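Input:
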Amino acid sequence: MQLTLSVSLTHYLVLSAILFGIGLFGVLVKKNAISVLICIELMLNAVNINFIAISKYVTPGDFIGQIFAIFVITVAAAEVGIGLAIIIAIYRNRLSVNLDEFDWLKW
Amino acid sequence: MGLVDSINWMAVAFYVLAAHIVVSALLVVCVRNIVHSVLWLAVCFVAMAGLFLTLDADFLAAVQVMVYAGAVCIMVVFGIMLIRRSDMGHSNLFNGQTKIAGGVVALVIVLCGALSARTQWLLSPNEVPAETVDNIATLLLSKYVIPFEVAALLLLVALIGAIILAKEVTVDATDSER
Amino acid sequence: MVEFAMQHAWLVPLLPALSFVIIVLLTRPWQKLSALVSIACMVSSCVIATLAAYGIFTNHEFTEKPLVYAARWFSLGLPGAPDLVVNVGVQLDPTSAMMIFMVSLVASLIQIYSVGYMEGDPGFSVFFSYLSLFASSMLLLVISSNLLQMFVAWELVGLCSYLLIGFYTHKISAREAAKKAFVTCRVADFGLLLGLLSLQIVFGTLDMVELSEKIHHFQEYTTAGVLTLIAVLVFIGPIGKSGQFPLHVWLPDAMEGPTPVSALIHAATMVVAGVYLVGRTMFLFSQVPAAMELVAVTGAFTALFAASIALTQREIKRILAYSTVSQLGYMMLALGVGSLTASMFHLWTHAFFKALMFLGAGSVLHALHHKADVWEMGGLIKKMPVTGWTFVIGGLAIAGIPPFAGFWSKDEILSMAFNSGHYVLFAMGAITAFMTAFYMWRLIFLAFFGDEKPENHPHESPVFMTAPLVVLAFLATVGGLVGTPWTPWDINWANWIWFHEAHHAEPNYMVMLGSVILAGAGIFLAYQLYYVDKARAKAHALADKYRALHTLSYNKFYIDEIYLWFNHSIVDGAAKLFFLFDIYIVDGIIINGIAAVTRLFGEGARISQTGRLQNYALVFFLGVLAVAVILAFTNPSSAGLMLGGVK
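Output:
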């Protein structure tokens, strides 16, 4: 029995696309604001997979992709902090984190 | 022996980790309890750290575990506990646009996959150098020192901003709750 | 002094305008002060006008080349090379000099008269402010160097006429008359406006001097047919303003206004604006014989038509009003046969004797507490000698008895019509002269002679009113002497006011004798019917004998009724149709339809505005997808660059 398993850049990119898609789906359909925040983290991680995979396969000696991924992680951490603060502030005013009830953009 | 040798263990690791990532990500989106959702998120992040190891990014794998699986998940759970006090079973529901969003997302995945498959990458024959931490540290403190400092500043600003936003402002709160 | 007046002739219209502003803004509560301001400004204006006129008439070169002071009013188009330049200014030549002198003089006299006539009226100050505004507009009209400027003044006098006819706002008839006058004149002014716009389009200027030069070679600009059309359009304005048939209907009704207004606006000045305009644009009319014929025929017909109505009217001011229409017809006739001289001469003499008669009528009405029917008057001359005898002088002047003013001008017109070969028009003019003498003396015999009516308690009017009467009577007596065939050529009217060339009119004894005989016959007939025959039995018998004609004339040939019928049946019917069209087509389909469609789209777009962030994000990603697909699959090179990183 010959298993011809192999792995290439495309595999990582497709995995990243799937993860990005799942995250995007969550962003678009979840009612809970915190859940949306979590899904954004998933999308950012999908991007990180891309960066690192391409860094390995295309520019292995430069580490540009890895450094970018570090910055992405930094920004994501900051984003989670701010996002949670905003959600808490909104919750304090509205007693809700349900995005369906937040239609202030309408008027 | 032949069977074991012929197996590409890297590929196996990739497929196992990828399966973990995809399944746990799907569970993040699908479960109805938000705390469970965060738990699956942590699983997903840890699996991703493993994936980073297969990509020769050991430093990043460590960072991933510490920052994401540790800090971010804990912070999110704290946030949930601050705002949701009962009925966790229905804390993470869907809104009305799941079908059309599913369609769009499928298109996004297909498009990204098709494009990455179609593209002919200029693959490098070289391997990633073994001492990744040395190289990253040197680059961050020399060539990328300004973005590095800016990122630090960003974190500081985010810290202050989060404190201000989340601070209890009694007068405003009563005003707008009226 | 004369030099100053000529250079600053713009003061002539400005001073009354100033008094208008002063009265309206400051002195309205103090009646006497308002009158004083108004009269002071008017008399100063009259003095300047007199000096300017003197300057013009002592220097013959201005006859050939008018004295023009003009300034840029506005210009349109690119700066530096404007497409349209309109100047505003004053143009002094003998014609306009005569007019400013005449208008300011008559206006001054009538303002003085009004002090007596309007005494005790609550609107005393307002009345004087209106009179000032009118005088200002009228002077601006006659002095304009530009036809557009003239049109503005033309509309302003129309406005003043409206305000003053409806001055007694508590009287319904006055309000109706004011509206009638305004609307009728507006119909005519539309024609005039079209004419002026056509002139501007065709010749590119409305400046009178420039226009007269260009129209002299009009073939370079347009054809004779177009020019005829333009002339006819321009002539529609004077038809309305000067009460020519068929737009004369407003003028008799305009007598609802206070009598000084009738005298000033509807006899001496404003109504002759039409004649003056045609005289001013003689350079246009003289190029197109058809338009000249139209002017002449309109004038002659109006003269005869109005005189035949005046024969049977009973109200004193109404008789005078139809007489005015008739005399304006004379002036048009004179213009139509090509004699600016005769027309302006008659305008000049008519202003004096008709103002005199109107003021006399006002004096009578004042004495009889506004009892207007001449059949209810009688023997007034004994109680009101000044009014009576000055009225008689006016009657002699209008009838055409030498040496009074009207004789000379009417004779000039008749001989001009005769000499130019318009024998039919001449005959119409002659018949009109006979009728004029008859109806005017019928009025005089009925009102001033015969038995006194015991129910009337007339008294002579105050000196404010009689003094202008005397002055006007003097002018009505001697005013025509400047234009007789025997007047020395240097000061002769014909030497100053002419078109193309001055020509000395030889006395036409046949015409002269004929018109005197006709006038005498008219007066004699009136004398027989209304003076000798105290019971007026013959007059009644005559009226009975020709009952149909009498009724027709008494009812003004039913012109008003025809207009009313036309209005009710055709205009109102069309209006109903248009109303339905408006409601269902314009409002229903066009306006509300467009609004409904817009609303529909709005409602549709509103659905998409949910206010929910995730909906927007979804649409946003759809857009991103679309862009990515387009870039990836339509333009391989750039798509490869952007999405794959591969060259």
